[in-house]
Amino acid sequence: MDKMDIAAGHDEIDWGGNIAEERGIKKNTVLLKNVHTDLPNPLPRHVKCTLVKGDYRYFHYGCDGQDDRGWGCGYRTIETLASWVCHNLSPHKHQSRPPPSIPDIQQALVAMGDKPNSFSGSREWIGTFEASLVLDYFYDVPCKLAHIRGGGAQLEHDAVEELHQHFEKHGSPVMMGGDRDNSSKGILGVCTGNKGSYLLVVDPHYYGCQPEKAELQQRGWVSWKRVSSLDQTSFYNLCMPQTASKGT
């Protein structure tokens, strides 16, 4: 659970030798890559559209063999953000490692003193605050946290403007979570027209064998969602990796 939230193409991953065996993951685990490509623009006559830049992989419930349905969405969104870092930032001492697993994330939060020892191996939720700690811990990537206090105008204007600025400057995926709407979301883009804006959402709640990208899009696991369709009574937090200074 987030401290600021009341609740919050195919590609092969090289997990790296013994790491795969230790995690119980098949070495050539197949995950979908760049699942938003080929989606039609939600607004043919848009005023402004800004999107994620570079490659990422789609992490979701159970994608590594661990059944985390009902509690793991925040972890999976963090892994999607981490996969972007691995693909796109200039190499340094941390970026040879793959996205951290759920046990890795939990152990890191305990090591940092953010969580008690009992957190490791638990099914406790995490959100945007923990995401910022994890990306800094594993990849030396700082994050900006933006708090959107309510729906309506604040979502339509404040959140949308934050996201436009982020994708223009940094280009990395964003993690979004809230209180009443406590389902973690990955945000891959924002599109604004004269009558409102849409967010490009990648949903980590899918569980099952890997579908084709087209099926994932048809079933709505990655889709453009109108901002006004979000819970207007919920607050939202955005975790925006600050990657421009790292070199993309």
Automatic annotation (TrEMBL):
It comes from the Eukaryota. Keywords: Hydrolase. One of its GO terms (molecular function) is deUFMylase activity. Transmembrane segments: none annotated. Residues 49-239 form the UFSP1/2/DUB catalytic domain. Belongs to the peptidase C78 family. This is UFSP1/2/DUB catalytic domain-containing protein.
